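dumping these here so i dont lose them again. two proteins, back to back, each one seq then structure tokens. dont judge the mess
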Amino acid sequence: MENLLSALRLLLANNIAIKFKAHGYHWNVESDDFAQLHEFFGEIYQDYDGATDTYAEWLRMLKSYAPYRLVDFFDLMNVGEPVIVGDPEPMIEDLYDTIEKHIEELVVVGEMANNEKQFGLANFLADRQTASQKICWQLRASMETETEMED
């Protein structure tokens, strides 16, 4: 169970890091498509922000304290923090790569939850996987050109 709790703390920290990354891109994107990208990045950070409380509540339901100090999140997270401002292409690519890695972690922790017979947690993580996969599809579609899509 302790491995599951540690993994859940990591997911919480990474969820917060992804939220802030998307929020920063929301603030700092510059492009002819500014309004659309500003809104899109806003939808991403709101999605991740909306999941934050549930991660913490699962830790509490499993009789563990949820980290809450910024230093704890910095110590726990494994999300990179490149400085990207203005150009939307590297923002989109960075978010895509970050969220793809997060999906892999969700799958592993979901399996751990099932092994511990924490099926409600596994369902929550499966829902987060689905939401993240949808975001990745949208990010990928934003990166692809028409010729790449034909392949």
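---- next one ----
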Amino acid sequence: MPELKQFADLRESDFQRYPVWIACHTADYGKPWYEQTDEETFRPWTGQLPAALTEGMLLVRAIVELRDGSRYPGFVTPAFEDGDLGTQQPQAFTAGRSFGFWGGICGVPIEERREFYAALQRAPDEVFPLSFSAEPGLATGIVTGRVEGFYQEAREGIRVER
């Protein structure tokens, strides 16, 4: 049985050991461990690199570069279209945890945003806009992009907050 991890439990060290993770719930249907998984369960990608975007939901090791030029490890999901942050959902690792910028309909809570800035010891204008890029050769698809702040899907469109 492969190593199984919940999305929220993935750490920087997991991506150091395995640069690509795949969602089990769609990729492993019919496998003996499938019943132990849900939509949030991932396992290391064991196929050839680059992992194809069409294989399923991938999490790919990336570098996140803040506006001030400082760099942090992170990960991203490859997308079919440029600028699709709702699919890419880049994450940055700092202070022993990951921070995401896409909050969907609920948005990213203000407490989490404050924790992110505190962990970085930076103000919003030192952080955003930031860029992200998966390491070359790990996956196909769009694995680069730019983040202006914390995103929320609203009735009137996408709202960006800092």
